[in-house]
Amino acid sequence: MCEQTLKDLVDRYTAVSFSVTTLAGSLVKEEIGSEITSDQYYTLKTIYQTGSCTSTHLAEVFAVKKSAITAIINRMWDKGLIKRTRDENDRRIVYLTLTEQGEEIYFMLERRIYKLVESFISKFDEAEISQFLKTYEKLNEVLIEIKENKVEKQS
Amino acid sequence: MCEQTLKDLVDRYTAVSFSVTTLAGSLVKEEIGSEITSDQYYTLKTIYQTGSCTSTHLAEVFAVKKSAITAIINRMWDKGLIKRTRDENDRRIVYLTLTEQGEEIYFMLERRIYKLVESFISKFDEAEISQFLKTYEKLNEVLIEIKENKVEKQS
DNA sequence: GTTTAATAGTTAAATAGTTGAACTATTCAT
DNA sequence: ATGAATAGTTCAACTATTTAACTATTAAAC
């Protein structure tokens, strides 16, 4: 790939990704509702997807300090969304899981997000969006690789 | 498009977009540096891109209340990144522009983001990423349309 | 032309998210 | 047994956001 083409592609990617991020962020804020904040939704989703999730794991995934996780988990625990369970073998570890109420709110938000995504996915034809998703999923793999290399370097 | 295919596409989009957003967010946090917060970068970028930007415009773009904009602009003004200029004809309006120092930091962050994006765009071949960007840009247009319809409804 | 509406932005209190540094409790290594 | 490493918490300081009340200015009605 020549210099000029690469520069053009990078410029287009940064421009469109900034715009989509801003627009999607603002739409989600307006459409998805205010039961919990978006950080709390991200936390619910990651705990739900991870079997036996810990504060350390959340801190690593979101690239924040563990004290920030303690704070957000405290607020969500106060609202009755999250359970804490100590590991019986290693009593330093605290496992995080969703309470019934936590799951209810999570599923409700997932349904609303589904509707929102459906409303614009349906404006594309299937072949187009399939090809798009294939590359998007490959981008995801590339990012996972970069992230894993960074984590290895740190340890 | 049949029900089943649409559901599959929406599910794939929500999954990959959540994962990429989380990963990219964490990489940007670790790579781009801590001169300013990401909200402040978004503010710098939007002011730079908009001729004669106002608080009202920023509040609309980011879907937050105007008082939140006042607060962030105050902090950035304290750091010498932003200038305020009153409109001579309509003295209610305050135009926001970047100071020289604000532009310097903005350009520096843009260069770092360019390097980061380049490092993963170059892992794709040109045809693949071109096709991807075409659909991504169309998605951007669709989102702009949705946003404009929402703004019209409100007024 | 004066009163009323609407618009642009600010202030202040309350809540949420984040960092950095010091801390407790527990496990691992030797 | 003792010292290092790991998992998580606490606290002070800061940033980001909302809600509601506020100032200043312009536009609209009458």
Automatic annotation (TrEMBL), chains A, B:
It holds the Pfam family MarR. GO terms for molecular function: DNA binding; DNA-binding transcription factor activity. Keywords: DNA-binding, Transcription, Transcription regulation. Gene3D superfamilies: Winged helix-like DNA-binding domain superfamily/Winged helix DNA-binding domain (1.10.10.10). This is DNA-binding MarR family transcriptional regulator. It comes from Bacillus benzoevorans. SMART domains: HTH_MARR. It comes from the Bacteria. InterPro entries: HTH_MarR-typ (IPR000835), WH-like_DNA-bd_sf (IPR036388), WH_DNA-bd_sf (IPR036390). Residues 1-141 form the HTH marR-type domain.
